Amino acid sequence: METVKTNTITVEATVNAPVSKVWKLWTGAEHITNWCNASDDWHAPYAENDLKVGGKFTTTMAAKDGSFSFDFGGIYDVVEENKLIEYTMGDGRHVSVTFEQQGNQTKVVETFDAENQNSEEMQRSGWQAILDNFKKYTEAN
């Protein structure tokens, strides 16, 4: 039997907000549509989130010019309020997101299985850009 090693990628940001606010804006579908994009020429016109073990989520990510869109989604494996979310994406890759209260700040760390269509650097920069956009949105609201 052959074992295939999956590389993982980690991105992180420290958000200037308490963990309860960070959690609310991270998990609320009405907020996800405001921050889930890697660049200004993309947006998330639709998000649905059933935040519970076995619950599903879907976010539509689309180019603002209408040239391309895709649904990003998965099923939750672990949900510990204000602490941890783990899910499996539609393609079987695993993601873990931790939320660590640090005074009036929250450290958010996302670790995910890399896919093999795009370079790890491209994946890291895309996920980091979305996380940075989340930080900006959270600190402004």
TrEMBL record:
Sorted alphabetically, which CDD domains does this protein's record hold?
SRPBCC_CalC_Aha1-like_4 (cd08897)
Domain Activator of Hsp90 ATPase homologue 1/2-like C-terminal stretches: 16-138
* Residue ranges of coiled coil: none
Q: What Pfam families does this protein map onto?
A: AHSA1 (PF08327)
Q: Which domain of life is it from?
A: Bacteria
Q: Give the Gene3D superfamilies listed for this entry.
A: 3.30.530.20
Q: Which family does it belong to?
A: Belongs to the AHA1 family.
This one is known as: SRPBCC family protein
Source organism of this protein record: Paradesertivirga mongoliensis
